[in-house]
């Protein structure tokens, strides 16, 4: 069975969606390790409750980005990880790390890429920007990670309507519930079934 490593920094609701999908048999894989970049992240509790091995690897405890990433890589190698999910992971990964796991790192972003993405667009800031621009449809994207922030090949997207009385907080919750928690497990399932083919930065899904 394919072994998954998940990188988290916060609440872990996307991690929970993947845990639930593994437990229900929707995803046929095993979550081998959950790594948090922050001590005390709620995501760690969720992983522990599910009986998954957890570790906290904080960037500030390392001399530089490379040493930090070496610690991540050695943990993933130790656990035989073949797919890495960034589920609300707030540290940007370098080219060196990405090269080790090329086309095997998946991220979930809370907008319809290429809108409201890239440097500076994270967390509530994404939804604040959506509301300030007045777009009527937003959503979420799951994509492979490459060197460009939020610029890797797109796997799945799902649209969510913006309501007139939305606040950044209400919109964030709805985008999670109606889009992120649905398309992230679906994308992971497709990867695990070897149904994703990347050609010229475009993902084709094999039926
Ligand atoms: C989600 O909105 C995700 O799209 C973004 O960070 C947030 C993480 O939330 N990358 P959670 O930790 O999964 O609850």
E-strand count: 9
Distance between the termini: 21 Å
Low-confidence stretches: none
* Percent of residues in beta strands: 15-25%
Helix content: 25-40%
SS-derived structural category: alpha/beta
What does this structure look like?
With 207 residues, the chain is α/β, with parallel strands linked by helices. The protein has six helices and nine strands. The strands form two sheets. The protein has a seven-stranded mixed β-sheet, sandwiched between helices. The protein is globular. The site of 5-O-phosphono-beta-D-ribofuranosylamine has 14 residues, from helix 1, strand 5 and helix 6.
Supply the key terms.
globular, alpha/beta, seven-stranded mixed beta sheet, 9 strands, binds 5-O-phosphono-beta-D-ribofuranosylamine, 207 residues
Write the layout of secondary structure elements.
Blueprint (H helix, E strand, L loop, with lengths): L1 E7 L4 H12 L4 E8 L5 H8 L4 E3 L8 H14 L4 E4 L8 H6 L4 E5 L14 H10 L3 E8 L9 E8 L6 H25 L3 E4 L2 E4 L2
Parallel strand pairs: 1-2, 1-4, 2-3, 4-5
Antiparallel strand pairs: 5-6, 6-7, 8-9
Helix pairs in contact: 1-6, 5-6
How would you briefly describe this protein structure?
With 207 residues, the chain is α/β, with parallel strands linked by helices. It is built from six helices and nine strands; from the N terminus they run βαβαβαβαβαββαββ.
